[in-house]
Amino acid sequence: MEFEKRKASTLAAMNSPEPDKSPKGNVDAPIVPLLAAINSHPLYFTTSSCSGRISVFAHPSASSSTSPVKSKGGKWVFISHDPVDPDSVSRLLLGDELGQSDPGHSFVFRFEPLIIAIECKDVQAAQWLVALAISCGFRESGITSATNKRVIIAIRCSIRLEVPLGCSDRIMVSLEYLKYIAELANEKMDANRKRTDGLLDALLKEGSFGPHSCNGKLLCRSEVNSDEASACLDGPDLEFLRNSSKGGMNSSEDGESKHFDSTKCGGIPLNVTASLNL
């Protein structure tokens, strides 16, 4: 029951009007449907997330004086979870934000893709979701922690961008170059959104997606035609699962098709049934 208690507590905090512990203070709007889909499943809940962001980050130099902000390792000069207007953002940064920052700061322009941390009921459930995420283009996904108490996975990919811009008193890039890297960041944001939408579509196509608990066992889609599964699953859920029992093809961003096999994850065979110790 500890998993269920942690899930209830986490979801209650997410639904609270109070700001959360992230710098932004709330969940990123572009991934609300994806988080809702994951959290609707009894074997998963999200613990932290970012939909993807374009930012300029200021790093304090080792010699600069200590302040509460600097002691945390720096601050954001600019941040957006949506595509940016290259002309506007380049003029804003070179005209005001960078030049007026504290002396001794160095600046980095970044694009960071989606990342979601998810607690899973057990290792089998974790492997299933990791396999699906990888098939949708999130190839850096994996289990980050697995103990007898908690199993955590991260859904993520490597379509990122990081470009040093210079320091407070010497910005090394031109207005035209900053506009160029903003355009690159927008392209990566678009690719990130397509993968995110693809993952949500894959989850929804699974019906009541993922492995299912039935009389103390974990059932994968390959078992949904069994009498035991038929007795456990509701009609609509079983129909969805039967219709998708052959698996699916998902195209990655580079055009390479990836086949999702719910019984394998990175070459590691999964047990299609396992005790859940509910």
Automatic annotation (TrEMBL):
Gene3D superfamilies hit by this protein: tRNA wybutosine-synthesizing-like
Reactions the enzyme catalyzes: 4-demethyl-7-[(3S)-3-amino-3-carboxypropyl]wyosine(37) in tRNA(Phe) + S-adenosyl-L-methionine = 7-[(3S)-3-amino-3-carboxypropyl]wyosine(37) in tRNA(Phe) + S-adenosyl-L-homocysteine + H(+)
Keywords (A to Z) from UniProt: Methyltransferase, S-adenosyl-L-methionine, Transferase, tRNA processing
Domain tRNA wybutosine-synthesizing protein: 5-204
Gene Ontology biological process terms from the UniProt entry: methylation; tRNA processing
GO molecular function, one term: methyltransferase activity
Region: Disordered, residue numbers: 1-26
Similarity field: Belongs to the TYW3 family.
UniProt name for this protein: tRNA wybutosine-synthesizing protein 3
